[in-house]
Inverse folding.
């Protein structure tokens, strides 16, 4: 029988966490709070993490970030991930706030973004922002528009390449189909799929 794997790392003089055997050398930011038995396959997932909040991100017990899961977070952004979650190749784009409950599964290619480019920004404004970013050696992500929090309640399943847009709340036990774009609140135990997205059935709690 295989022994349970325990991930190890060390805290540097800069208070960042450096995972043993990690190919990416910058480590995990010191304001990311990691609970027991969390697995993070590489600290590269935090390359776009720029939050300056003291408790910018919490990863709950036994949750895992696998296969290029990425956290792109602004200086004011905060992410909370509950217990026993799977983020498998997921991208979280957080300008302000993303909350994920317990026992959620997010499949590869899924994206949660609490901000979006809106039509109120002219081509000239977008161009000027992108030029400014291009001139910055650190290449920060260009957050556009106002942010609206995303909340996933417990036991949600988000299929591969699905996109959860700003302000969406996924109710307990709901399922989002592959490649589905969600821009509305999903009630508990609903199955949502299609383009445009629609509720196709409800699960028995």
């Amino acid at each position: 029988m295989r022994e349970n794997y325990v991930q190890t790392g060390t805290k540097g003089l800069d208070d960042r966490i450096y995972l043993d055997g990690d190919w990416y050398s910058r480590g995990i930011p010191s304001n990311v709070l990691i609970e027991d038995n969390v697995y993070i396959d590489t600290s590269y997932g935090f390359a776009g993490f720029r939050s300056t909040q003291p408790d910018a991100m919490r990863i709950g017990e036994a949750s895992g970030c696998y296969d290029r899961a990425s956290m792109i977070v602004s200086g004011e952004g905060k992410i909370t991930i509950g217990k026993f979650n799977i983020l498998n190749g997921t991208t979280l784009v957080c300008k302000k706030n993303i909350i994920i409950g317990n026992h959620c599964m997010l499949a590869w290619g899924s994206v949660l973004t609490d901000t979006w480019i809106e039509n109120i920004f002219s081509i000239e404004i977008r161009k000027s922002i992108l030029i400014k970013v291009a001139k910055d050696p650190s290449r920060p992500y260009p957050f556009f528009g106002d942010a609206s929090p995303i909340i996933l309640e417990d036991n949600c399943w988000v299929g591969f390449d699905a996109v959860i847009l700003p302000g969406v709340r996924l109710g307990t036990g709901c399922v989002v189909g592959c490649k589905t774009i969600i821009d509305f609140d999903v009630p508990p135990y609903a199955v949502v799929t299609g383009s445009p997205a629609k509720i196709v059935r409800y699960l028995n709690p």
About this structure: The helical segments are 123-135.
